[in-house]
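haha ok so turns out i had the wrong file open the whole time. this is the CORRECT one, sorry everyone. sequence first:
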Amino acid sequence: MTDSKPDDIKGRRARAREKARLGRQRRRRRARGTRYALLGGAALVVLALVVGGVFAIFNSIHPAGPGPANMAGDGITIGKNFQAVPAAAAQSPSAEPSATTTAATGQTVKIVVYFDYLCPTCGSFETTNDAYIKGLVRSGAATVEYHPIAILTNQSLGTKYSQRAANAGACVADHSPNSYFAFNSAMFARQPQEGTSGLSNDQLISLVKSLGSVSHVPEISTCITDQTYASWVVQATQRALAGPIPGASISKIRSTPTILVNGEQYKYTTPFTTDEFSNFVVTAAGNSYADNATSTPTPTTPTPTATSRATGKATGAATGQATAKATPTK
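then structure:
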């Protein structure tokens, strides 16, 4: 065996020192990674606590709980003479108010509308067909079930108008349900443009007071100011968007307005026309009723057609003949 040369000994020592240095670097990196992981975990815990705290604060202001009276299933049903149908009855088809013999030969037609009070297309549908629907509901030929939801809450310059407007509707349904049809018509008559701040709470209260026939105005005013049903509006909106939609041909709400007649979706065209909607109502009802409430015991069965002229002959109210006689609701 030969003795190692001095240069070889120096090389081995240099390599050993480099190996030791690299080992120390790896250990330091591992230590830093562990420390960062611990800090990150702690940060997530803090974030969860903060989010939980914010949610708790929101719930303390707007506690989750039962929705407004008369809105079982997140909607209020309006029947003959604009009287709200009790929640339990509205959920039972057999308990729905029956149409008079002069208005129907079969079942009462059920119209269901999902809408946002800031949605311009919803406003166009309502203003075009309000008088027609009013005639059907007054006579008992149809019920209308309103579902106010808030999908445009972030489209009102930070005022959350959609949510506040739906909350106002819930307040009216809770305290003065027989005024809801008039309230709904007034809300769309004064509908603000999308992208604006909308009506303030004070203006919503003034609108309610202007209807005249509303009962329990002080309670409704407090409900609007306190946003009593703000959490319910959020939850009702989520339920509508997630589905299911009971007794409907669709599984969930994808846009507003969504209009159902006896469970069938009205696939509208714009601009809206009363002729198109009334023809769909007659078709969806299976020609089982006449929507113009005649004085004869057995009405003529309407025959829906594609033309406005023929529809007018078949249904009367479809062309506004019946609704022209209607007096405004209060």
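Confidence is low (pLDDT under 50) at residues 42-64, 91-105, 287-330.
again sry for the mixup
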